[in-house]
Amino acid sequence: MDVIELTKQLGLELQKSEAFKVLDNARKLNDADQELQQQIADFNLARMDLNNEIAKGDDKNTDRVNDINEKIHALYMEIMNNESMVAYNQAKNQMDTLMQYITDILTAAVNGEDPTAVQQSSGGCSGSCGSCGGCH
């Protein structure tokens, strides 16, 4: 089996993982949450209003820009505090952590390191520059 076929198999296995199942379920709950979908639609409309007002250049109404910015911020906070979105973000963070670990393993292999020696980072510096995205 070549590396591409193995990667496809990894993708299929990833879809069987608990992290994927939780994320997929959270995504479906978000899609079904009508209140959340309305909040997202309102947020997107407010962003379009803001872009339209800013595009007026010198003719823009600064008070209107400020009002729209406040509305966008309030809508964003509503969205991010929505129970469905909170669950989705937690699931996405877990998946992102898993994907980063997978990337670290592959990066170590590409850099000639032992991929079986790569440990999942608990945050911060792992000490292995080969699997690092850069120092902070």
Care to count the β-strands?
0
Class by SSE composition = mainly alpha
Helices, by number, come to 5
Helix percent band: over 70%
What is the rounded distance between the termini? 39 Å
- Secondary-structure element series: HHHHH
Largest sheet: none
Strand content: under 5%
Q: Which regions are unreliable across 5 or more consecutive residues at pLDDT < 50?
A: none
**Shape field:** elongated
CA-atom Rg in angstroms:
21 Å
Tell me, rounded to a whole number, the average pLDDT: 90
Structure overview:
The chain is mostly helical and 136 residues long. The chain is 72% helix and 0% strand. The protein starts with a helix and ends in a 26-residue tail after the last helix.
Detail the topology: elements first, then pairings.
Elements: H1 3-16, H2 18-32, H3 34-54, H4 62-81, H5 83-110
Summed up:
By secondary structure, this protein is mainly alpha-helical. The protein has helices at 3-16, 18-32, 34-54, 62-81, 83-110. α2 (18-32) packs antiparallel against α5.
